[in-house]
């Protein structure tokens, strides 16, 4: 048990001790607040019981109210008095009335437990004459109404002519004028009787219902809100910078210089280069993922770079993709020569009366920018290694797939993702195509706002939630450089030649027979460990379905990264190795973490578009273009602010509700079996927080 002697430690903990106040729970002390004055400075410190003594600290929130033991006292004007601060509250206790206050003064009434007052119906708040006093009155009124919507709350300002004045200031300026009272000591009985009588008269004279007090400006609807509205701020998921050290030194240097020339981070260029090399290799290299199984992966992959229209995505993509231009030109020359030879043989056979049944030569293709699905199948037939689909404006290509009648195109493209499928087509109007090897590497640029539409569909339950967008594993959405600087650094010609030499060697290797590579024993053990942990996590049920789908495709990302990095390392060697080393695997796993974080940023950025909608709706409400109590259809049926989609409006309203700007009100139908109505109410403080 705590004794009065134990409070000596509270009194002696700091010079200038003035007084202390005990907070109780069921009559048991749970916290002590002490005041210390040194000159003009005052300090409040909190203590909690600890083995018969007091230790500095606070009890767990919600905190008890100070003065709970006085609730059994006779009421003042049938009301419970609420003050700001323990000193004023203790003075009311001397008058024999029930009075309460909160710890930490006016700063945190929401952190106190008000439920013991749920059975009382009438309160009088003696507020301080300053802005914190007004805020405190408003907050306490809201909290009281939230536990008892029918209670009456009155407010009294005893010191309207004295800034910051409170109950004690009023008492010392009236009844106690001229007395030598130190504001803490017990008053004499005559003083108590005089003060009690005078205060009751003054309260009767000044008390006004809190809703009718213009200074406080309390609205009953505030009781439905949990506090002040929160700021509508978007914080993107943090992402790491691209680890350039995964590349050979010459490639890393090339990417660094190239990015500096456009004053941008190297993430864009590095991602495009990874995809270019993946597309160049395509199906020509197969990585055996498990030693005793049939699981293999090939290098084709889907990815995109995400950034604002001013982030230099297109120039960077153009520069990196142009690394394949010499190979394309060489392939064109070889095709023209082969075509001339074909025509010459054809003429010679015709002149000699011989049958000529040779096939037309095939142009080796690397990139296509725009194609129909039938033409793409034809290109695959002549390019079994695979192709790169390049979309500087990825949104346009995705929009095509959303058009009615394009469902088959979408399905075919999904078949092109793994690079391991065989596709056969039989149509009445054209020749059958048997066992086409569809292997597509897809590279694109897209702004965040455009990407959000497709990711929102992927996160839903409609036709867009088919795993299509989750196939874009190499997605890069970095923190871009905001301040543009000029760079005079040039890419050395020797460095250009070295990069081209690597790509040319990879091209030659990929035109030979398909090659199989495996993990080294050490790398295999490490991959197996990662796979078990990763698959267990992705199947744990802790993640949303759309994110499970994304995680479930990351083993291919790791495989593609391994093939690309291994091939780049071996591209200037005469006898390339067929084992992926543990070092290469670790680099691939670092890329997996990198692209997982960037993908998560993309999905979480959807909140950004909802946030913009929420801001627009809040602006509409502040401009009083609709009532502050409204239905969702008041917005989308009128098309106000360009809102015509009910689901979009609902998502924005729910965000405003989460942030404390709106509260939902459900009204039952007056008829039997009716659906009722749902109204939204704007926080009364919304106009003062503009």
Can you tell me about this structure?
By secondary structure, the chain is an alpha/beta fold. It folds into four domains: 1-59, no CATH class; 60-212, Dna Topoisomerase Vi A Subunit, Chain: A, domain 2 (3-Layer(aba) Sandwich), CATH 3.40.1360.10; 244-606, Rossmann fold (3-Layer(aba) Sandwich), CATH 3.40.50; 624-687, Arc Repressor Mutant, subunit A, CATH 1.10.10. Helix content is 40%, strand content 17%. A five-stranded mixed beta sheet has the order 6-5-7-8-9, with helices on both faces. A five-stranded parallel beta sheet has the order 13-14-17-12-18, with helices on both faces. Helix 2 (86-94) links the parallel strand 5 (80-83) and strand 6 (99-100). Helix 7 packs parallel to helix 8 (313-321), helix 7 crosses helix 17 (554-570) and helix 15 packs parallel to helix 18. The chain is elongated and about 135 Å long.
In short, what is this structure?
The chain is an alpha/beta fold and 690 residues long.
What attributes characterize this protein structure?
5-stranded mixed sheet; Rossmann fold; Dna Topoisomerase Vi A Subunit, Chain: A, domain 2; 690 residues; elongated; 23 strands; 4 domains; 40% helix; 5-stranded parallel sheet; alpha/beta
